[in-house]
Amino acid sequence: MIHSVLKASRFLNPRRETLGLTIAVSDCVYRFAFSSMKEINCKVDSSSCTLAPNREPCITDSLSVSGNCTTSSTSVKSTPEIEKKYVHHVYDAIAPHFSATRFAKWPKVAAFLSSLPLGSIVFDAGCGNGKYLGLNQDCFFIGCDISPSLIKICSDREHEVLVADAVNLPYRTGFGDVAISIAVLHHLSTENRRRKAIEELVRVVKKGGLVLITVWAVEQEDSKLITKWTPLNEKYVDEWVGPGSPRTRAPSSSSLESIPESEVSRSGEHMEVCNEPHVSRDLEEEKNIKNQQEYFVPWHLPYHRAEISGASAEALAAGLATKDDNKGAVVYNRYYHVFSEGELESLTTGINNARIVDQFFDKSNWCIILEKTV
Question: Which SUPFAM superfamilies has this protein been placed in (predicted)?
Answer without folding.
Answer: S-adenosyl-L-methionine-dependent methyltransferases
